[in-house]
Amino acid sequence: MTHLDELPAELYTAIVEQLDCLPLERQRAIASLLCALPHSPIAAHLLYEEIHLTQRRQAPLLYRTLRKHKEYASRVRIFSYRSFEADASQVVNVVNLFGNLKQITLWIGPDFAPEDMGDVFEKPREKLISLSLRFKP
Hints:
With about 140 residues, the protein is of the alpha/beta class. The protein contains six helices and four strands; from the N terminus they run H-H-E-H-H-E-H-E-H-E. It has helices spanning about 10-15, 25-35, 60-70, 70-75, 90-95, 115-120; strands at about 50-55, 80, 105-110, 130-135. The chain has a four-stranded parallel sheet with strand order 1-2-3-4, with no helix packed on it. Helix 5 (about 90-95) packs parallel to helix 6 (about 115-120).
């Protein structure tokens, strides 16, 4: 009898790709699978296709994770930072790890300087389709 942690990684990927739900719900389902079946070959990179941060403390944690696992950063297509409180340099460092972004959403508070925004677009972003900026004075 085959145990769940002995199934091939391709099968888990196919199952996750069939989930018809919002991206956040999909991420939660993947995280739950990773917790419930820690020794199974579930591709952790599936968690990193869309990243949505809502708290100041999340940016440095994500930065450390992506520096350790550089292959995850190349998979990110959508990034949003939805908090007016931020250490701008940390958010810029995170955004600059992503080379294949299609969509960026940033909430810009008083901690962001114009130079910080310039740093986000220092390198060309040829694949970028959507840029959403929300400013709080």
